[in-house]
Every structure is written in C-alpha cells, then in structure tokens.
Amino acid sequence: MTLYLRGNYYSFTLRNRSALVITETELKLMAAAAKMGLKSNPKNGYSTPAAIGTPTAL
C-alpha cells in the first residue's frame, strides 16, 4: 500500500512477526546473564579494585 502525504510517498510493507519472536529459553538465559552481572562482589579476603578496565599508558 502506498500513501501520498504532504508531497511525499510512503510505502507500507507487512513484516513477518516470526522474526521478532523470543522463546522462553532465550528470556531465561538473558535474565540469568543479567543476574550474574549484579553479583560482582569480590571473594572474601580481596578488596574491590579502584577501577575495572584496561590500564592506559601515560
């Protein structure tokens, strides 16, 4: 379907909804990964580092 509006043509294409389907398994895996990111406490006997990342050359 094509629509003419304010001097411009717009085309509407039907999209395949199956391309956007996320399974329950994928949702569970994403939730587990998010929870692991929140549990970044150091083990007993170790202190939290001042910075996390790659050191830069001065």
Give the percentage of residues in beta strands.
Answer: 5-15%
Average pLDDT confidence is 71
Low-pLDDT sequence parts: none
Overall, the morphology is elongated
Query: Main sheet: which strands, in order across?
Result: 1-2
Main sheet makeup = 2 strands, antiparallel
Order of helices and strands: EEH
How far the N terminus sits from the C terminus, by CA atoms, comes to 60 Å
Question: What does this entry look like structurally?
Answer:
The protein is built from 1 helix and 2 strands, in the order ββα. It is α+β, with helices and mostly antiparallel strands and 58 residues long. The protein has a domain at 2-29. The chain has a two-stranded antiparallel sheet. The longest helix is centred in the middle third of the chain and has 15 residues, at 24-38.
